[in-house]
Amino acid sequence: MTDPRPAVRIASVDKIFRGRKGAEVHALSDVSLDVAPGEFVSLIGPSGCGKSTLMRLVADLDQLTAGEIEVFGKTPEQARKDQDYGIAFQQAGLLPWRTVRANIELPLEIHGVDARGRAARSDELLELIGLADFADHHPDQLSGGMKQRVAIARALAERPRLLLMDEPFGALDEITREHMQNELVALCKETGAAVIFVTHSIPEAVFLSDRVVVMSPRPGRIKDIVTLDFSARDEELREDSTFYDGVTAVRMLLHDGAADGARGVENR
Ligand SMILES: Nc1ncnc2c1ncn2[C@@H]1O[C@H](COP(=O)(O)OP(=O)(O)OP(=O)(O)O)[C@@H](O)[C@H]1O
Asked: Which one of 31, 49, 223 would you pick to mutate in the ligand 1 pocket, going by the greatest count of ligand atoms within 8 A of its CB?
């Protein structure tokens, strides 16, 4: 039976950072958002609108000032302890002294999975990300895209029902990036995981997401949400007029209908 609870429930969240000299930054104001199980939601908006802050609150890496966040009905702290989600942030964050396989197995090792169980799972994941031949390599022997794939495999190691991804493809070249997007679509289909995905790229958000949450800064808040209802997310979609309609809808919201760009958002 599918879980009726949202994967993530964000209710009236405020986050105020207080500096040492009493200066305040109102990073998030009255942000509410539910993410359904299996849903792919992107956060997009100009630099400083609070995308990473929101992600960090969900991941229990920071504390909110007001409001409430639940992850599968639990506090973010409990969800973190229960390993209910996997995290992949911009820097792949692999341990350089560990092999590809040992990096992927790290969360399993921490949670006491035995060697045989770890090997079976890392075999599956290496196959999934197409790096079976690189299992014994070290991160410095891999390209940026390969490292990112390893980081995603590590995030998936414990079969999380939720993935939190903050600009995971930001450092990749355009071709690798599109390839990774295709892989992520396939992975989500296969695992049924919900995803919250931070990006600066409008086409990336539109291609991947069921919903694109457009945020605005000072204070960071949700400006609007664009729902995308594509029947398939494949190479053909990238050339389809419905895809361009989605890109235009998000761009108009970001730019308040103006033709010039919003700082920190890529049109490519
Ligand atoms: N630890 C912190 N202390 C004080 N202010 C912070 C802290 N972290 C973030 N901020 C402020 O909160 C606001 C939101 O920052 P955040 O990093 O969430 O934005 P963002 O939308 O992810 O930006 P970018 O697109 O540039 O990554 C900014 O004004 C930032 O300066």
From this structure: 49
